[in-house]
Design brief:
five-stranded mixed beta sheet, four-stranded mixed beta sheet, 21% strand, globular
Length: 234
């Protein structure tokens, strides 16, 4: 059993949760529509970010503002490096606190290794988690489904009363949900539990930086915790 907290519900908190739920559910359609529009427009094989939900609900962030900007820069630079490889794969790059998750599909092991090496060389990247699949590119229908799944996971996190939804970044690929963020062990397990209960989720992979409860408390006081390596568990 995981320890949980039950905050006192106020009218303001209820209103905030309702608004956040509406934003998450609206984003499901928005991301799916963007995926469809990109495909119909004949977009390039490389997709930056993939089916990612996590920025639309940001009220607070456990990264510094500088790190958030750095993550955006890493994603753009990594996308450019992968394009230079001219791979026929569908490569999605997501950076959180300078840890880069690579998802999607490439034709073979050589392409998979080349993509990882290219991303690892991007300035300020501290770790790479390579989850590229080997095989044909996912279909438009599959990508649209992943966008919907990611939105459902985020909405379920907003509905939960014992976690901070915006502490998690959610990436969905071929029904596999990847969770990123700087969280405590309890938050990591609870987030995975919520995600695994969402319809359509085949598996949950945790790509977290684990904080102690004291380090999390220090964040609230503006004291950065020590940098930790990402923990990847299925």
């Amino acid at each position: 059993m995981f320890p949980t907290t039950r905050p006192t519900t106020t009218a303001a908190a209820t209103t905030h949760r309702h608004a956040a739920r509406q934003m998450a559910r609206a984003a499901i359609g928005a991301v799916a529509a963007a995926t469809l529009a990109g495909a119909l427009a004949g977009c390039a094989p490389l997709l930056l970010g993939g089916a990612v939900m996590g920025t639309g609900l940001v009220v607070t962030d456990r990264r510094t503002t500088g790190t958030q900007l750095e993550d955006e820069s890493i994603e753009l630079k990594a996308a450019a490096r992968v394009r230079e490889l001219a791979t026929l794969g569908n490569v999605n790059v997501t950076s959180y606190n300078r840890t880069v998750l690579i998802t999607g599909e490439v034709p073979g092991e050589a392409e998979k290794a080349a993509v990882e090496a290219a991303v690892a060389r991007v300035e300020n990247v501290k770790a790479v988690v390579n989850e590229l699949g080997i095989g044909q590119n996912s279909t438009l229908g599959s990508r649209s489904t992943d966008a919907i799944i990611a939105g459902r996971v985020k909405a379920s996190m907003v509905d939960a009363k014992d976690i901070q939804a915006n502490a998690y970044k959610v990436v969905s690929e071929r029904g596999i949900v990847y969770l990123m963020g700087r969280v405590t062990e309890r938050e990591a397990n609870r987030g995975a539990e919520i995600a695994s209960a969402v319809n359509g989720v085949q598996k949950v992979v945790k790509v977290f930086e684990i904080l102690t409860e004291q380090e999390l408390a220090n964040l609230g006081r503006g004291q950065p915790p020590a940098q930790t390596a990402p923990v990847r568990t299925p």
